[in-house]
Amino acid sequence: MQFTLRSVSFFSIFIFSLLHVPTHAIKKSYIVYLGEHSHDSEVPSADLDQVTNSHYQFLSSFLQNSNERPEDVIFYSYTRNINGFAAILDEEQAAEIAKHPKVVSVLPNLGRKLHTTHSWELMGLERYGNAPSQSLWKKANFGEDIIIANLDTGVFPESKSFDDEGMGPVPSKWKGICQNGNKEDEIHCNSLSDKGLPRQKFYPLISAADTKAGNVSSEDALLCKAGTLDPKLVKGKILVCRRGGNARVEKGQQAALAGAVAMILVNDELSGNEVVADPHILPASHISYADGLDLFSYLKSTKTRDNTDLPMITAAKDEATPFSYGGGHVRPNRAVDPGLVYDLIPTDYIKFLCGLGYNQTQIDLFTKGSFCPKSFKITDLNYPSITVPSLSGTVTVSRTLKNVGSPGTYHGSVKSPPGISVELQPKSLKFEKIGEEKSFKLLLKAKGSDVAKEYVFGHLLWSDGTHNVRSPIVVKSS
């Protein structure tokens, strides 16, 4: 088949014209972040509308060569916590907007899914892909032979959830035997007389980050740098310092100067397993990074610090408070053996409603046959947290603890909120059996008239050396 010169020319022009057909840029969803607002989140709706209008005005300058309206391009305005908007833009528009001096960033608006790949390690159930011996997973045999049913309006006994096929017989209960000794010291069975045991003195263990002086950062205090430690908080304790920032021997010197009886030096991640013998001036031990993680985990009975043993922070980069984390991060391994609990029964909640001012008619809507006591303070609800929202004069708060562990004596210690005096009565509680209950009181009083009229935070800790029962203390002076 032959083509004439004229037909070839026409074909070339046709192909060339195809190359100049206008193409529309691909539109995507972007988030334009403009930084913080000048106002807080509690603002009138009219002011929020002004923020939205400012977003329209800002974007209009980038749409001058387009038939698009800002109101059609922007599909969401962030008017409260952050200043910005989400819009449908092409890559060229997004790049131009990103050059503007008022713009912090322009990011593709991508869908994110929650990953649980680190959840087990975060909760202490797993370490480096394996369940350690103290893990609840290991103790519970990873949930083997446990049937879980969802209880809603009722369940069907015929449900497959109750099928025990393939589970084998129910294990027999082994009670064991008592092997008697020689009775020479009147000690029977597999036990040990304490007559031959040396009397040891136990010293409190504390992270250097919890002993910072003045306006020193927790990061510097944890490194035990000169002038970062408060002797009042260090004296008589074993201090845990982190490696890095200054010489290892200097850390021991600073610990001794602050009154520490001993020091544990923990490697940072960079130092790993390297352990060096140093001539410290006080009893000291140097441990690896991995062992340090375990030690810091022990120090935090409830987790109000992050994985670097520094105070938790909020999304706004402020130091977190009990309003942010409550009593602390859940720790399943410790939750199964808490030692003590603050027990509550339905009657306690009825008393709480009475304290809020509910009358008998209103109480009868919840329950029949319950009556309000002559007097009840809402601050006395037997809750694990202790809150006094309007402190005036001296306020007494009562709580009752129930022993759910082995017998023992718990000693109480208080970290008072700034500007607040807190007295604990009594300072120790002895429990002799499971289910036994003991009560205590906290007397709170402002130290002076210049106490800030905002919430301040502290905590109460009961410890028997094994269990640590921590309660946040939240106070606002009237």
TrEMBL record:
Residues 29-115 form the Inhibitor I9 domain. One of its GO terms (biological process) is proteolysis. It comes from the Eukaryota. Pfam families: fn3_6, Inhibitor_I9, PA. CDD domains: PA_subtilisin_like (cd02120). InterPro entries: PA_dom_sf (IPR046450), PA_domain (IPR003137), Peptidase_S8/S53_dom_sf (IPR036852), S8pro/Inhibitor_I9 (IPR010259), S8pro/Inhibitor_I9_sf (IPR037045), SBT (IPR045051), Subtilisin-like_FN3 (IPR041469). Keywords: Glycoprotein, Hydrolase, Protease, Serine protease, Signal. Residues 1-25 form the signal peptide. Belongs to the peptidase S8 family. This is Subtilisin-like protease, fibronectin type-III domain.
